[in-house]
Design brief:
The complex is a heterodimer of chains A (304) and B (956). By secondary structure, chain A is of the alpha+beta class. Chain A contains 14 helices and eight strands. In chain A, helix 6 (127-153) runs antiparallel to helix 11. Chain B is built from 32 helices and 37 strands. In chain B, strand 1 (6-12) and strand 2 (20-25) form a beta hairpin. The chains are: A alpha+beta (304), B alpha/beta (956).
Chain lengths: 304, 956
């Protein structure tokens, strides 16, 4: 589409949004309006819709989503009561998908000035949220890191290994943005590519450019490890905080604490153990209350 | 039509009743008596109550009926003149730890209502009184501020008990609170926070921030309501006006210094069964679990390296494990050997292992026997101790999370015991709820008061004008209920007392009091031995209560043996004359005089003095062996030191709540069991129990069923059945067919039992909304065995015939078999001759089960063995004639070289004892001392002893 056509389209979408917002402003039940998605931070095209969140005065809502029409444009509206919106937002981990979605949004109207302040603050990723986000992203990255090695050494399938590198690209980009305190969006790879193309090259440009040699693949795999090591301090912090009392923590305790699946979480814990930060140990347990034979549950120990 | 003046029962054939027809006068107090097993309960409960309930249920919908467990239809031709019937049985308190005297009597509901209505809150910072306001009232007051004012709704946060700040913060974040003020500084939970665990930080959460406008009132009201909900139903909220509040804004509404508002209170805010109101640590139970150090030691005679400790604490098989490194390093630093038996290690080492190095760093060393270098080696670490470690694990495991459910891991729970909750100290509610008071006391303080004290407190209460009418109505209701409980002899208990610590008798009296308070008339009440568990001093109160129920216009039928109750009845029916097949007839019926004069009435004999339980001519002399309890302090015991003579018959007496059970069941029995068998239980508070080596076994004989399985019976319990099976299996025809002893077992499939009914002899058909129906098994015709099995015969009797024999008949049939004759002979002597060998254990009365257990013990008497038998209120459900048999059995045990301790109120048992230990003088706080001890004659001379006073009357 031509530049002028695009500009025209933007204006049409903006006008539709404004006219809808002007209408809902007259409704005392609507306290605030947030525009999210392409219209808020990107470029719309002819198939785009408008994502909008309305904050409603506390009441029992009969429906919490509508698909509306404004000047032939689809507006997907989500409704939140003020109190539950606040509780929901406060609960969101900075760097998670929904937090990133709202962080890129714009509050275009509010009858309560305090909400503008609140919304602005919501975009910020705190240091704890950054560390936690890095932790769960690195769990997934370690999973891919292992898969790449397996497909290259055991399955001897260079193409599929290369495919895994592409999968890793999104995670790595997300980690880099998180580490910089920026909530990652679906365009994370492009964002990082713009700032430091050489960082994304082994996982994005090179795998897209054509088949990679085994040496290049191994180099990319080592690059993945370097990414992990670069963020090791930050991603380890939540784990070490939890384990700081120097008592053994079994996987049951760790998964409960981090609200994560054990098979993911153990990736990062084993990685930390391999790096000598923590020690992998075990604890004798009984699998069921009636079980006679003992079983050994994996646990970890940290002595500062 | 004339009003029916009696309940007419015709042709009752339930259990052993022999076509009984009887009339019971309405609106009167009728006692049904008779020896144990005579059929009195069958008449009262199965026939009268069963029919009454069945007919009442007929009037409700089939849907409702299908959800009620119904009694079987009684075998009776007809019962006429029934009213709605309520049975008040002797059931022990509910085992649910949440059930208390307050909840059972519904008194807690009124108490909670009183606090919700007339409670005064207090500022958590300065305790200034706060008045209750609804969310709307608070919002209205706030919206009086100028437009554009910014206000913040905040709430105080306290560190979760036993947890660190980071866990408290994590919990807040999960609830949806990210913005806090710590010591006045705004922080975000999205950031890593520096907090000092040793410091008590002042923390507040920012729930919402609102800029006031003309239309904010509704949102503000809703925001306050939503905040309260999100805060787990908190009742305090703080309102901060940003930039400072106008002068007087908080006056009369909130704490002027700390800005706390007390929100609307509801009764559930004071209910420990509402998760939001319950203490966070014990979840409203008042007790929480802690690790008991001695449970971590499984074999104290072994060394640590040989497995002295539980394998979940220290697994000896892991030579290279971190625990091996830790244990080795501890042994090096603190200089003890891992090869010394655990019980020979010093107390300091035990303390070290259980409770840790108390902050001291322990260098981790490489054990010489370890094959690989451990990561720990070379580091210094503190050791928190296995007790702390396990408790910390427990805390983590019971946390709920989105990915894993909370569960109590058995490997930790095994090592734990219940202790008073360290956070709420047994108050069961969260701290905030205890800041609400009525008359200066919080709800927990009222729940801990003895009823007498509580009643006195309630009468002193004065209320503010605005709540006076409502509050006084509630207090009146409380007054009535508590007075009734006191009148019925329960003055010593408190509303917070757990139901599972209440005896069957106490529970029955509690239920009686709730019935009286209902003030219904025209009802039919059926009670089971209400005098049980009552000291003679208090039994008069129960009789008065029954009379009160009668005088309200109700019919009261009581199954009772107590002569005093019988003496007060308007009408008496005796079922008998003997137990089982020897009973089932109406022996006598009429007034007290009629019964006294009825020559064939056993009860009449005792009532008229024709029959008496004689005072022993001679009491046994005390020997020189004693069990000694030192410093007993459990419950209300006042640091009691006591010597209990052995080889004699001892009776522990005292009014209800005087501390008898605490002394004997909680301390003596438990400590002896720990000493003798290493039982994994914790005895009540005391210093020492000496003399465990003087007894071989400690045996409790209670009235609990001897088996819960329909296939267990007296023969299997006593062990007779094994011999009988052997006899059948050794018959030539059985040998020829290859039968073994086990093939004659009712529990063994693929033997000779009938497989259609699985050896029950009956088939139970479930009829949805009708009561279950039992029919004789069509295959075995009720014989319980297959045709092939029945073909094996001993002197023409099949195994089924033998199971149908009474003990008397069997004793004669097996006269030439020494073992069987001996055991059956003892059962006969104890008056169990009427029981059939195959009678299901579930059909035995408590008294019968007790005697089966006693005969089992008597049959095992060995020369030189010295057991201690402990019986708690063994006369429950026993007629005087049965008590005579019980005394016979107990004396036989003592004569056989054993010791018997009986906790009892029955004067005939007291007077028959060799030695009495009387606790008291009163129940509850007024008790806990040994008031008198010695022979009954000696105790009778002690003026302050209530027991002594009553003993004088029976000792003459």
């Amino acid at each position: 589409m031509e530049e002028s056509g695009l500009r025209e389209l933007q204006e049409r979408y903006r006008a539709a949004s404004d006219s809808f917002v002007d209408r809902v402003k007259k409704d005392a039940n609507v306290i605030a309006v947030i525009v999210c998605g392409s219209l808020a931070y990107d470029t719309v095209w002819e198939k785009s819709d408008i994502d909008m969140t309305l904050i409603i005065r506390d009441q029992t809502l009969q429906q919490n989503a509508y698909c509306l029409d404004e000047d032939g444009i689809i507006i997907n509206v989500q409704l939140f009561e003020r109190s539950s919106f606040k509780r929901g937002m406060d609960r969101l981990l900075g760097g998670s998908m929904p937090q990133s979605y709202f962080a890129k949004g714009q509050m275009v109207y509010s009858s309560d000035d305090s909400l503008y302040e609140y919304f602005d603050e919501m975009r910020r990723m705190g240091t704890q949220d950054i560390a936690r986000s890095l932790l769960w992203r690195s769990c997934e990255l370690i999973d891919i890191f292992h898969k790449c090695q397996k497909w290259l050494t055991v399955r001897k399938d260079a193409r599929y290994t290369q495919f895994f590198l592409l999968k890793a690209a999104d995670l790595i980009a997300g980690m880099e943005l998180c580490a910089a305190g920026e909530p990652p969006t679906r365009e994370a790879v492009l964002s990082v590519l713009e700032r430091s193309p050489e960082q994304m090259s082994p996982f994005y440009q090179q795998p897209l450019s054509g088949p990679l040699s085994e040496t290049e693949l191994w180099s990319a795999i080592r690059g993945m490890e370097q990414v992990l090591d670069r963020h090791l301090d930050a991603m380890s912090r939540p784990v070490l905080d939890f384990m700081g009392d120097q008592s053994l923590k079994t996987m049951t305790m760790l998964t409960k604490h981090f609200h994560m699946e054990g098979h993911y979480l153990i990736n990062v814990l084993e990685y930390m153990a391999e790096k000598g930060i923590i020690e992998k140990v075990s604890q004798t347990i009984r699998i069921t209350s009636k079980s006679k034979p003992a079983a050994e549950e994996i646990g970890f120990l940290y002595i500062p | 039509m004339s009003i029916r003046t009696s309940i007419e029962i015709s042709g009752a054939k339930q259990n052993n009743l022999k076509n009984v027809s009887v009339e019971i006068p309405r609106d009167k107090l009728t006692v049904i008596t008779g020896v144990s097993g005579s059929g009195k309960s069958s008449l009262a409960f199965d026939v009268i109550y069963g029919e009454g309930q069945r007919r009442f249920l007929d009037s409700i919908s089939n849907f409702a009926k299908s959800r009620i467990s119904q009694l079987k239809k009684a075998k009776v031709d007809y019962v006429r003149g029934l009213s709605p019937v309520i049975a008040i049985e002797q059931k022990k308190g509910n085992n649910n730890p949440r059930s208390t005297v307050g909840t059972v009597t519904d008194t807690n509901d009124y108490l909670r209502l009183l606090f919700a209505t007339a409670g005064t809150g207090h500022c958590p910072e300065c305790s200034k009184p706060l008045r209750q306001l609804s969310a709307a009232q608070i919002a209205e007051h706030i919206t009086g501020l100028p437009e554009g004012t910014v206000i913040e709704l905040r709430a105080p946060v306290y560190k979760i008990y036993g947890e660190d700040y980071s866990y408290t913060f994590q919990q807040l974040r999960e609830k949806g609170f990210k913005h806090l003020l710590i010591d006045g500084e705004p922080v975000s939970l999205g950031d890593e926070l520096e907090t000092d665990e040793g410091k008590s930080h002042v923390i507040e959460i920012v729930i919402d921030r609102i800029t006031l406008r003309h239309d904010t009132y509704i949102q503000l009201t809703k925001s306050i309501e939503a905040a309260i909900l999100a805060l787990d139903e908190d009742i305090m909220i703080k309102v901060e006006v940003m930039g400072g509040a106008p002068v007087g804004f908080y006056e009369h509404f909130a704490c002027p210094d700390h800005h706390f508002f007390l929100c609307d209170m509801q009764p559930f805010h004071f209910s420990f069964n509402t998760p939001a109101s319950a203490c966070h640590t014990c979840l409203g139970v008042g007790m929480s679990y802690v690790v008991e150090p001695h449970f971590l030691v499984v074999a104290p005679e072994k060394s640590i390296s040989r497995g002295a400790l539980k394998n979940t604490v220290f697994n000896t098989s892991g030579k290279d494990s971190y625990r091996t490194v830790l244990m080795y390093s501890l042994s090096q630093k603190y200089n003890f050997s891992l090869d010394t038996p655990f019980h020979e290690l010093s107390k300091e080492i035990h303390e070290l292992l259980f409770f840790g190095s108390r902050g001291e760093l322990v260098p981790m060393l490489q054990p010489p026997f370890s094959q690989k270098k451990n990561w720990l080696t070379g580091r210094d670490r503190t050791f928190a101790g296995f007790v702390h470690e396990m408790e910390s694990w427990y805390k983590h495991y019971i946390r709920k999370s989105s990915t894993t459910e909370a569960f109590e891991p058995t490997f930790i729970k095994d090592c734990m015991i219940e202790k008073i909750c360290p956070e709420c100290s047994g108050a069961r509610l969260k701290q905030q709820r205890l800041q609400v008071t009525v008359g200066g006391k919080n709800i927990d303080q009222l729940s801990r008061m003895q009823l007498q004290e509580l009643l006195a407190f309630l009468t002193t209460l004065r209320f503010e004008q605005e709540v006076r009418d409502v509050a006084e109505t509630i207090v009146r209701e409380l007054h009535t209920r508590i007075s009734l409980l006191i009148e019925i002899g329960l003055h010593y208990i408190n509303l917070g007392r757990r139901s599972d610590s209440i005896s069957g008798g106490e529970m029955q009296r509690i239920k009686m009091s709730t019935q009286i308070s209902s003030e219904l008339m025209g009802m039919l009440y059926i009670m089971d031995e209400p005098s049980i568990g009552l000291h003679p001093r208090d039994s008069g109160r129960v009789i008065d209560t029954m009379k009160k129920l009668r005088d309200l216009g109700n019919t009261v039928i009581v199954v009772e043996h107590d002569l005093e109750t019988i003496g007060c009845a308007d009408h008496i029916i005796e079922i008998g004359p003997g137990p089982g097949i020897h009973g089932g007839n109406v022996v006598a019926s009429g007034t007290l005089e009629d019964i006294k004069n009825a020559a064939e009435s056993v009860t009449g004999g005792y009532l008229s003095g024709r029959t008496v339980i004689p005072v022993p001519e001679q009491r046994r002399n005390l020997g020189d062996t004693f069990l000694s309890i030192q410093g007993a302090r459990e419950n209300n015991l006042k640091d009691v030191d006591l010597d209990i003579p052995l080889n004699v018959f001892i009776c522990i007496t005292g009014v209800s709540g005087s501390g008898k059970s605490s002394l004997i069941n909680e301390i003596l029995t438990k400590q002896l069991k720990i000493d003798k068998t290493g039982a994994r239980i914790v005895a009540g508070k005391h210093d020492y129990v000496f003399g465990a080596d003087l007894v071989n076994h400690v045996i409790n004989i209670d009235q609990s069923p001897i088996g819960r399985n329909s296939k267990s019976n007296p023969a299997t319990y006593i062990g007779l059945y094994d011999k009988i099976r052997d006899l059948f299996a050794s018959q030539p025809e059985a040998v020829e067919r290859g039968y073994q002893s086990i093939d004659f077992s009712l529990t063994h499939a693929n033997g000779t039992r009938c497989e259609h009914c699985a050896g029950d002899g009956i088939i139970v058909t479930s009829l949805q909304f009708m009561a279950d129906i039992e029919t004789i098994c069509p295959v075995c015709k009720g014989n319980r065995f297959s045709e092939e099995g029945l073909e094996i015969r001993i002197r023409d009797k099949s195994i089924s015939d033998v199971l149908e024999m009474t003990v008397e008949e069997a004793a004669e049939f097996f006269a030439d078999h020494k073992y069987l004759k001996h055991k059956l002979g003892i059962m006969n002597e104890l008056g169990l001759g009427y029981l059939t060998l195959g009678q299901s254990s579930t059909t035995l009365s408590g008294g019968e089960a007790q005697r089966v257990k006693l005969s089992n013990e008597l049959a095992k008497i060995k020369r030189g063995a010295h057991n201690l038998y402990i019986l708690d209120e063994p006369t429950t459900g026993l007629h005087l004639a049965d008590i005579q048999k019980l005394l016979l059995a107990l004396n036989k045990l003592v004569d056989g070289g054993h010791s018997v301790i009986v906790i009892e109120h029955h004067l005939d048992v007291m007077k028959s004892a060799d030695y009495i230990i009387d606790m008291g003088p009163e129940g509850g706080n007024g008790g806990g001392y040994v008031v008198a001890e010695g022979t009954p004659e000696q105790v009778a001379k002690v003026g302050v002893s209530h027991t002594g006073r009553y003993l004088r009357s029976v000792l003459g």
